[in-house]
Specification:
This is GtrA family protein. The protein is mainly alpha-helical and 143 residues long. It has five helices and no strands. The protein has one domain. The chain is 83% helix and 0% strand. The chain is elongated. Residues 137-143 have low confidence and may be disordered.
Length: 143
């Protein structure tokens, strides 16, 4: 059975991911279609902007009571940056593969790739590594 807190955390994280993701996706299209950047470069730039939004919402809303809210921001930022680098790399590669191998428009390929990367890579790492609660923090927060 799922705990209510786990389900709520998951749903909140999806809101954070959605807001970061919609910014990322919209900016990718803008940079590609209007500014004529190759979509892989657009994904790099838009992914960075979306990641800043996602990190901020996760830190200050989703995991604020679980991750040592007032401390460890440098560690969290470093870990989050590593997740973002992996995420952007996977999204760029996946989108490129869908476009080149399967001749799927980059916008559609990106959406397909995002589903796999978001649920199979980003969420587990953000929850269980970037904002992981350790036993010491649990003791401090429960007092």
């Amino acid at each position: 059975m799922f705990k209510k807190k786990s389900v709520l955390t998951f749903l909140q994280a999806q809101v954070a991911a959605f807001l970061g993701g919609i910014t990322d996706y919209g900016l990718m299209i803008l940079l590609t279609e209007v500014f004529k950047l190759h979509f892989t470069f657009s994904i790099l730039i838009s992914g960075t902007v979306g990641a800043i939004i996602n990190f901020s919402i996760n830190r200050f809303w989703v995991f604020k009571n679980q991750s040592g809210y007032s401390s460890h921001i440098n560690s969290q930022l470093f870990k989050f940056a590593l997740v973002v680098l992996g995420s952007i790399s996977l999204k760029s590669l996946g989108t490129f593969m869908f476009q080149k191998v399967f001749q799927i428009d980059y916008k559609i390929g990106r959406l397909i790739t995002d589903l796999f990367v978001s649920y199979g890579f980003n969420y587990p790492l953000i929850k269980n590594w970037v904002f992981k609660v350790n036993d010491k923090q649990n003791v401090i927060q429960s007092n």
